[in-house]
Each structure stands twice: as structure tokens, then as C-alpha cells.
Design brief:
The complex is a heterodimer of chains A (about 240) and B (about 500). Chain A is of the alpha/beta class and about 240 residues long. Chain A is about 15% helix and about 30% strand. Chain A has an eleven-stranded mixed β-sheet, with helices on both faces. The radius of gyration of chain A is 18 Å and the shape is globular. With about 500 residues, chain B is an alpha/beta fold. Helices cover about 30% and strands about 15% of the residues of chain B. In chain B, helix 4 crosses helix 14 and helix 11 crosses helix 14. Classes of the chains: A alpha/beta (about 240), B alpha/beta (about 500). Chains A and B meet through helix 1 and strand 12 of A and helix 3, strand 5 and helix 7 of B. Strand 12 of chain A pairs parallel with strand 5 of chain B, so a sheet runs across the interface.
Chain lengths: ~240, ~500
């Protein structure tokens, strides 16, 4: 693994250095450099410090592990691979992601998992150990969003989750009685089948962050799915 | 549409003495207007289904058909016109938002038609394009403001990636899904042979069309359908769609019924699922956020692709364009309010946005005033109908034009404005395989090549008349334009004098 110290270098210079490497790279002293790992497929990254916005945008198969926090737009439009963050992340994580997995140990900001989509075997997953801000999973069209709310003592998601959701599945740990969902989704308690569906993700999450797998899997979960694949069907008349 | 209040808009007039009962009209009409009455041995019509696409008229071997506007009208009323009343009936019947296709059909001002082009007389000679070389080639992209030299005095190439076009026209975005495979193939083939570019729209790029990559603009819209690293690398340039002239301020929505087969595969969403592009990009709330998307695309493609930001022409477009020019974008595309669409809410299409002529003039002036005009190239669309419109647009300050309605007309579109039904009898705005095969991509592309070649000749002749032999020398050359019948404010915004001045 090749080490690159990111101190005092600007983002395009850092990213050029990463692109030029033939082997896996460890970035140290990262300080807000943006676009790290954009479109990356041919090597894996370990990052200490704080990467800037759009970490792993369009990621295409690489594994990025961050030992710290990450900022906005983690995994924007990502296609394949994994992003593992041992900390919190900012807003807009996993926007329109269509494959791969994002694991966050801590909390995610506003607008996480907007417009995630899925096609055949490509099913993206966003797993957040802590809580998220408002507008979680707006326009969700596919994929799996799992919010664990570990250690949270209030609502594990902010306001207006699932607005415009028309595909995929969302799992929130707990009964979620206090959360208001829009009319276009079904909200129900998770069954054993539902839990077994997310168990592989939970196992991976616990392996990454040393969390208690049994405690999580034995928790109560709420499952949210859209009630129709065509939410806007009745809205129009030909003119 | 079981609405007894709405009378058929058109009449099918059949000259029975010419009709040979070959039933071509019946087979050709996907709307099922025509049928054969075996008892009476006559062709009959259900005019309530007719959209006036004239497919039957064109293919009737004995020319026995014509479609005319029905003269069965409501009592005349300048305020409550037939169309207005019908729209109320439709909404009262359904509770739905009115959905229309193609560009704004209303009689709003077309400034192109009120702008006249100059010609040389006596004092500076005009140029004959038949005997003098005329350059219509343009390069789109950021132009460097300084010449960098190394320690030996040699010039350092500081030019960012440029798009080379043989003429200042490109085919603008129409997604695979809104138009057919054969329509896309026609555009791609023609763009390749012409040395220009076509645009995928927001529906991804069909795997068969990656071979035309050097002549392709790949689009990234808020839904990010079919966007992945290979797709981004496939094109000559990447276009971020922020807005569209036909429906500024709202997103795209391809109904689940059109997400079938290869369209589903290309967009990478399941069959039958709606493809919703939200109105905003939910990660772009500012110029700084736009800059982030621009640079994330540049990083993902190692700075090899120019990035276009496409916006609708709206109020304050000059300030918006100024922001985009500072976002790192290489090219700004502006789409005027007459631009076409496969489907847009009628009220938005007909009431939102501004004419491209005014938007272009305002943007070009603003960017010049701020000294950032060379940061970006300007591409304009939204009803460029002819070579004359192209020349006027260049003289108002555009680097190139986008055409789409003119291109689908070349492919056989008859502007019946019912694309949203998916039953296009001309094989363009449909995914029905029986209808798609009516458009032969070889013939379609040849018709596009013919159209563009003709426009190129006309552009050269207009340039020659002005004594200009390079399109670059025409750009922003507003002295070559005069307005006619325009008021002072309009002339001021367009930055041109009145005819006679």
C-alpha cells in the first residue's frame, strides 16, 4: 500500500497522485480535499483525517475506508464498491446511488439516500449506525436504506422521510410511532423475513465497527415500502 | 377519454370514389381511427381518436384522404376560446394536470422573425461561397485568457478540452425512452457523418451507441438515470441538465408504461417503474454546489471532457449564466421557452420561461461586461427553425445552436403534439416495436444529413453576403442585425439598432 500525505495539497493535485498509483493507497492527514476516489475502480483507499465533499462520487468498484468523519455527498451516484466511514457524514450521502454499499458508524446529515435506485442484481445499500437528518430517502426508487439509531435517545430520522418514494425498502430500528410518513408509503413492523433480508448487511456493519450483532438483529424494526410503483399515474390528463 | 363534452377536433375526409379499400389507413393508424365495415364494404372513421398526424394521408395510395379541422365549434368568444373551454372540460372530467407535447404553440413573439440580417453593398465586397473558402467550423469550450510560456519561451498548451464542430449546430437532448431506438440511431449516425454532436438526454446511452461516443454528449440529470463511469467516459462532453425550455422549474417524468425492454435496461430501472427526475438536483442549492457537481464529473473523467450546464431561459438568466460561467462549466446551454418536449404540463409549457433571443442577448452582454465571456461557450436552443435563425443566433452572441424539433421534423414528425401517448405513427416518439420499425435509421440519418448540409450552404451564403468568411467573425457581431417592428426596450435588450438606422 502506497502512502500519500495530503497535507497542504489541493484536491486536484491529490486526486492526480491517487490516479497515478498502480496499487492501493493510504491518504494521511486528509483535510477537506474534495472528489477523492471519483469514479475509482482499480484500487482501494484508506483515509485518515477528514475527506471533503463528494468522496467516492461515481465510485465504480473500489473500497474506501475512512478513519474519521466525511463531509457532504459521500458516494454520489456511486455504481459499485464500498465506502466505510468510522465516524459521521454530512448531507446528501448516496444521492442516486445505483450499486455498492455505504456503511456509516455514526450519523448522517440531511437528504441521505435521495433517489437511490436498483436494477436487477444491482441493489445499493446505505447503512447508518446512528441517526439521519430530514428528507431521508426522498424519491427512493430502489435499494435498501437501513438506519440503526444506535445510542439515539430521540427520533432516529428527521422530518419528511420517504417523500416521493416509489421503489426500494427502508428499515428503521424501533417502532417509529413518533415519525410522520407520507401517504404514499406502507409502514409496518418488520417480519422475520424482513429481518433475514437485512441480516447480511447488519453482519457486515458489525464486522466493520465492532457492534453487537445480536442486539441489533433482535431489535424491533419498522419497514417502509412504496404503495405503488407509479405514484404519479393519476395526476395527468392528455391535452 | 370518455368525455361527451369534447367533440372530435378533426374530420377525416375520405373521397369514396378514390378509396380502393386497401385498408392501409387502418393498418397504419396506431390510434385506431380507421376500420373496415365488412357489411357495407366501406372504410369508416372514429374521429374522436384522430390526432392529425397525417400518417394515413401520406400513405394512402390513391390520395383519397385528408384531415381537416372540424368546423363544429362552440359559439365564438374571444375570451373563452374553444381550446380554453376544452381544457376545462378535460380537467372537470379527470381532475388531472393537463399534459402536452412539443413546444409552446401559442402566438407569442418570435423575435427571430423581427430581426433582419445585413449584406454588403459596394463599399465592402460580399464573398461568393462557391469560389472562396468559407469556415463554419467552431470549437466549444473555455478559451484561455493568457498565453503561458516555459523557460525556453515555448508555448505551454493550456487549452482545456474543446468540442470541434463542422458547423455551429448540434442535435439537442432527447432521451432514449422519449424517442425510439431508431430515432436515436438516426441522430447518432447523422452526427457522426456530419462531424457534429447529438445528445443522449437523460435516459442513459444504449450499449449499441457507444461506438458513436465521439459524436455524443452524455447527459446527467437530477434522476441520474444510466449514469456511471463508463457512460461518462463514453461521450465527447458531459451535459448537466438543470432545466429545459419546455418546462422550466420542473423535472422529468417518463411514465412506467414506457419503461420497457431496452429502455429499462438503458436507464437501469425496473420495467414498469416510473422514471422520475426531480425538479431540482437535490444536491444543488447554489452555484457552489453546481461547481461541486461540475468538478466531480471532471474528476471522474480525469479532466478529459468539457462540461456543459444546460438551463432554461428564465427571468434573471443573465445573472444565472454569470454564476454558471464561474462554476467551472466549459459551456452554457440555454433553452428558450419554445423548446419541445415529449411531455410537459400544459400550463408550464405555455406560461413559463422567456424567448431565447432575449435570453441569449442578455447573457452574452452580461458575460462580456463582466469580462468572463471567454470562460464559456454559449449554445442556444428552443426553436431554432432554419439557417437564418442560426445566423441570427450567432450574431447575437451564440457559439452554436441546439436543434431538436427541426431534427425530428426531418425524421418525419408531423408536429401533432401527442408524443405523450407513445403511439407515434411515424416511429419517433414511441417504444412500440411495430411503430419503431417504420423509421429506417439509414433513411432517417440521410434526411438529417441533407437538412444540415442545406443549412450549412445557407449559412455560408448568408455569411458571404455580409462579407464574412468565418463563423467566428460573425459571433456577437450585432452590427450585422437590425430589428423591425420592435420597441426601444426590445432593441435595447437585443443590443441591435432598428432597421433604417
Amino acid at each position: 500500500m502506497k502512502k500519500i500525505n495530503a497535507e497542504n495539497i489541493i484536491f486536484d493535485e491529490l486526486n492526480n497522485k491517487v490516479r497515478a498509483e498502480k496499487e492501493d493507497v493510504e491518504i494521511t492527514d486528509c483535510l477537506g480535499q474534495r472528489f477523492i476516489g471519483a469514479g475509482l475502480s482499480d484500487k482501494n483507499l484508506k483515509i485518515t483525517g477528514t475527506p471533503g465533499n463528494a468522496l467516492g462520487a461515481y465510485l465504480n468498484g473500489a473500497v474506501i475506508e475512512v478513519f474519521g468523519n466525511a463531509q457532504d455527498a459521500v458516494g454520489d451516484t456511486m455504481n459499485d464498491g464500498e465506502i466505510i466511514v468510522h465516524g459521521n457524514i454530512g448531507d446528501c450521502a448516496g444521492y442516486a446511488m445505483r450499486g455498492g454499499k455505504i456503511f456509516v458508524k455514526g450519523n448522517a446529515g440531511y437528504r441521505a439516500g435521495i433517489h437511490m435506485k436498483a436494477y436487477k442484481e444491482k441493489i445499493p445499500a446505505l447503512i447508518v449506525g446512528g441517526t439521519t437528518g430530514s428528507f431521508l430517502g426522498e424519491y427512493q426508487a430502489g435499494g435498501v436504506i437501513i438506519i440503526l439509531g444506535l445510542g439515539a435517545n430521540k427520533n432516529i430520522v428527521g422530518n419528511f422521510p420517504c417523500t416521493g418514494m416509489h421503489g426500494g425498502k427502508m428499515f428503521l430500528r424501533g417502532g417509529c410511532k413518533e415519525i410522520t410518513f407520507p401517504k404514499n408509503v406502507h409502514v409496518k413492523a418488520a417480519t422475520k423475513e424482513d429481518i433475514s433480508e437485512i441480516t447480511p448487511y447488519i453482519k457486515e456493519f458489525c464486522a466493520h465497527f465492532n457492534a453487537d450483532e445480536k442486539e441489533i438483529i433482535n431489535s424491533e424494526f419498522t419497514v417502509i415500502t412504496p404503495d405503488s410503483n407509479n405514484p404519479y399515474k393519476q395526476m395527468y390528463v392528455a391535452n | 377519454m370518455n368525455d361527451i363534452y369534447i367533440n372530435p377536433e378533426f374530420e377525416v375526409v375520405r373521397n369514396d370514389s378514390r378509396c380502393i379499400r386497401c385498408r392501409v389507413c387502418e393498418r397504419q393508424c396506431a390510434n385506431e381511427v380507421h376500420s373496415f365495415d365488412a357489411d357495407g364494404k366501406v372504410m369508416i372513421s372514429d374521429e374522436s381518436k384522430c390526432v392529425n398526424c397525417q400518417r394515413c394521408v401520406s400513405l394512402c395510395p390513391t390520395h383519397s384522404l385528408k384531415i381537416v379541422k372540424s368546423d363544429c365549434r362552440l359559439k365564438e368568444n374571444a375570451n373563452w376560446q374553444d381550446q380554453t373551454i376544452k381544457e376545462i372540460y378535460k380537467q372537470a372530467n379527470s381532475g388531472g394536470v393537463l399534459l402536452s407535447s412539443m413546444g409552446n404553440p401559442n402566438p407569442l413573439p418570435v423575435y427571430w422573425d423581427k430581426i433582419l440580417i445585413n449584406a454588403s453593398q459596394v463599399t465592402n465586397p460580399s464573398i461568393d461561397p462557391l469560389r472562396e473558402p468559407m469556415e463554419t467550423k467552431v470549437f466549444l469550450g473555455k478559451k484561455p485568457s493568457v498565453i503561458d510560456r516555459d523557460c525556453n519561451g515555448e508555448i505551454i498548451n493550456n487549452l482545456t478540452p474543446q468540442i470541434e464542430l463542422s458547423m455551429p449546430v448540434m442535435f439537442s437532448a432527447m432521451s432514449y425512452g422519449s424517442i425510439s431506438y431508431n430515432a436515436h440511431k438516426s441522430l447518432a449516425l447523422a452526427a457522426q457523418k456530419l462531424g457534429i454532436l447529438y445528445n443522449t438526454g437523460e435516459g442513459g446511452l444504449h450499449e449499441d451507441f457507444y461506438v458513436y461516443g465521439d459524436n455524443t454528449i452524455v447527459q446527467v440529470a437530477s434522476g441520474r438515470f444510466g449514469v456511471h463511469e463508463k457512460y461518462l467516459m463514453a461521450g465527447k462532453a458531459i451535459e448537466i441538465k438543470m432545466g429545459q425550455g419546455a418546462k422550466p422549474g420542473i423535472g422529468g417524468h417518463l411514465p412506467g408504461a414506457k419503461i420497457v425492454g431496452d429502455v429499462s435496461k438503458t436507464r437501469m430501472i425496473p420495467e414498469g417503474s416510473d422514471a422520475i427526475s426531480p425538479a431540482p438536483h437535490h444536491d444543488i442549492y447554489s452555484i457552489e454546489d453546481l461547481r461541486q457537481l461540475v468538478y466531480s464529473l471532471k474528476e471522474a473523467t480525469a479532466y478529459k471532457k468539457p462540461v456543459i450546464v444546460k438551463v432554461a431561459a428564465v427571468h434573471n438568466i443573465a445573472a444565472i449564466a454569470s454564476g454558471i460561467a464561474r462554476s467551472g462549466a466549459d459551456i452554457i446551454a440555454i433553452d428558450g421557452f419554445r423548446g419541445g418536449t415529449g411531455a410537459a404540463p400544459t400550463r408550464i409549457r405555455d406560461n413559463v420561461g422567456i424567448p431565447i433571443e432575449l435570453a441569449l442577448a442578455a447573457v452574452d452582454k452580461r458575460l462580456r461586461d463582466e469580462g468572463i465571456r471567454n470562460n464559456v461557450s454559449l449554445v442556444v436552443g428552443g426553436s431554432i427553425r432554419s439557417a437564418a435563425d442560426v445566423v441570427k443566433a450567432i450574431a447575437l452572441g451564440a457559439d452554436a445552436c441546439y436543434i431538436a424539433t427541426a431534427a425530428v421534423l426531418a425524421l418525419g414528425c408531423h408536429l401533432c403534439r401527442t408524443c405523450q401517448t407513445g403511439k407515434c405513427n411515424w416511429g419517433i416518439a414511441t417504444q412500440n416495436p411495430e411503430l419503431v420499425k417504420r423509421l429506417n435509421p439509414e433513411i432517417g440519418s440521410q434526411r438529417l444529413i441533407n437538412l444540415m448540409t442545406a443549412w450549412q450552404h445557407e449559412i455560408k451564403e448568408l455569411m458571404g453576403g455580409m462579407g464574412i468568411n468565418s463563423i467566428e467573425a460573425l459571433r456577437g457581431n450585432r452590427l450585422m442585425l437590425r430589428g423591425v417592428g420592435l420597441n426601444e426596450k426590445e432593441l435595447e435588450i437585443l443590443g441591435i439598432s432598428h432597421a433604417g438606422q
